[in-house]
C-alpha cells in the first residue's frame, strides 16, 4: 500500500542506508505511526499512514535518508515519542517517517562543565535514572515525562512542570546538531561553543530551530544542562471557595520571589467538578472546595524548608486552606505522568462513555485569565450542545515563565472526546471550536500555544494573525 | 501457599458516597454501576486485583518522589512546628 513515490527501489536504497532490520514497510509499523494523542479523525486514519518507517542509528544515516528523500521529492517527518499534541509527527502527506527511537545513547557526561550529550531518542526519565549516580539531573519535566523524548522536546520547544525554577526545554538544551532539509549537518547554539550557555557572537540560531516541529530538519545530537539533584521536594495544594480568591492567591504565590518555587497551578471550578466526578483524591472533598491551587518547590533542604513555611503562610493569608500531605504529595507525584488520566467521560445524562483526553493550550497573562476562562468554557459548552461526544473537563493555568514563575500562564482547557463517534460534521465543529479558542487567546494579547505548538487544522490559520500583529499597536 | 480463598475474590458490597460514586474499599471509589450501563459495562474485578492495582499506584507515586529528590518535606509537620498565624 505504498504511494507511487516510495517504490521498491527507494526501499532498497533505504535498506542500504539504515540496514535491513531498521526499515519497515509492513502495515502495523506504518499504521501505528499515523497519529499522536491529539484528537484525530479516526474515520480518516488511512489518509495519514506513512509509506515507510526508518529507524536510523546515526546522524550520517539520517542525513543520507534526507538526501534520498530530496532526490525523489518524498515528504519526510521526524518522530520521537509520538506524544506531541499538535500533529507535528503525523505524516500528513504519507512519505517517510524517520523514527529516532534507536538513537537513544548517552554520549558524554561532563561533570566539570555540567553538561550531558545525548542522542535525540533518549527519554528524560531514563536519562535521569542514569544521571542519579552522579548526583545531577536534567530537569525537563513535562507531564509526558516517562514517554516523550529529547528530539520531540526540541521539535516542540516544550514546557516543563518545574520550569519556573529550572527553565523550559529551550533554556535547558544548550546546543544541538541538526540535519537540514538538504542533508547537511550543522550545530546550533548560543554562539559557537557547544557547551556555552550565553554568547553575543552573531545571530542566535538555536531559537529558530526550537519548536520547528520537524519542518527545518532533524536533530541528531544535543548538549543538555545538568543541575544538582534536589535534596528536597515540597508540594502544597490549597483549596478555595471561589475562583476570584484562588486566582488572586495564585498571583500572590507566583510573585512570592521564592527561588525554589518551581510552579503554581490554578484549577478552576469546571476542573474541580470533573475531578470530583472521577478522581479518587477529589471525590471526598467537601462542596465548598470549588478551586484548587497547587505549588511545588525543589532545591537544597536548607532553602526549601524555610521557603515552604513562607509559601504555606502566603497560601493561607490569601484565602487558601492547605489540603493536607496525602493529596499534596500524591497528586504532585502523579503530575509527572498524565497518561494516568481517566480515559472515560460522560454524556450529559451521566452515562460513562470511552473518551480520549485532549487539551487546548495557550499562553495567557495573569490579568486576563478570568475572561479567557469564561469565553473558552462557552465555546466548549456550545460544542457540547451540538454533539454529545464532547465533554468539558475543566481548565488549569500553570506558571509559564522560565526561572521566574509569574506574568503569563500555560492555560489549558481539557476536553474529553468520544473519538470512535467522530464523523465529518463533528470533526468540522471541533476544528471550528479550536479556531475560536485560539482566536480568544490572541484577542486577549496571548499566544495560541505555550507548549504544544500551533500547527493543527483550525489554529494554524491564525498563526499569521498572531505573529503578524506583533509590534503593532 | 494459601490457595484459593473466596474472600480474596469477592469484593465487599458497595456503599453509596454520592449520586455518582460508590465505595467498596478505603480510598477506592467506583463509578456508580448504574452509570455504566448503556455504552461501557463495568468489569467484575476480584478483590485482590483491585488491591494490587491500588498498591502499585502508591508504589509508583513513592518511586516518583524518590526519583526527583532525596526527601519530601511535609506541610503538616511544618505547620505543627510553626503555626502559620491563626
Ligand atoms: C499526557 C501528556 C502530557 C503532556 N504534557 C506536556 C507538558 O507538560 N509539556 C509539554 O511541553 N508537552 C506536553 N505534552 C505534549 C508532548 O509530550 C510534548 O510536545 C513533547 O515535547 C513531544 O515529544 P515526543 O518525543 O513525543 O515528540 P513527537 O510527538 O514524536 O514529535 C513532536 C514534534 O517534534 C518533531 N521531532 C521529533 N523528533 C525530532 C527530531 N529528532 N528533530 C526534529 N524534530 C523532531 C516531530 O516531527 C513533531 O513535530 C503532553 C502530552 C501528553 C500525551
Automatic annotation (TrEMBL), chain A:
One of its GO terms (molecular function) is D-lactate dehydrogenase (cytochrome) activity. Its cofactor is FAD. Residues 46-229 form the FAD-binding PCMH-type domain. Keywords: FAD, Flavoprotein, Oxidoreductase, Transit peptide. One of its GO terms (biological process) is lactate catabolic process. It comes from the Bacteria. InterPro entries: FAD-bd_oxidored_4_C (IPR004113), FAD-bd_PCMH (IPR016166), FAD-bd_PCMH-like_sf (IPR036318), FAD-bd_PCMH_sub2 (IPR016169), FAD-linked_Oxase-like_C (IPR016164), Oxid_FAD_bind_N (IPR006094). Its EC number is 1.1.2.4. Belongs to the FAD-binding oxidoreductase/transferase type 4 family. This is D-lactate dehydrogenase (cytochrome).
Automatic annotation (TrEMBL), chain B:
This is Uncharacterized protein. It comes from Phytohabitans flavus. The lineage of its organism: Bacteria, Bacillati, Actinomycetota, Actinomycetes, Micromonosporales.
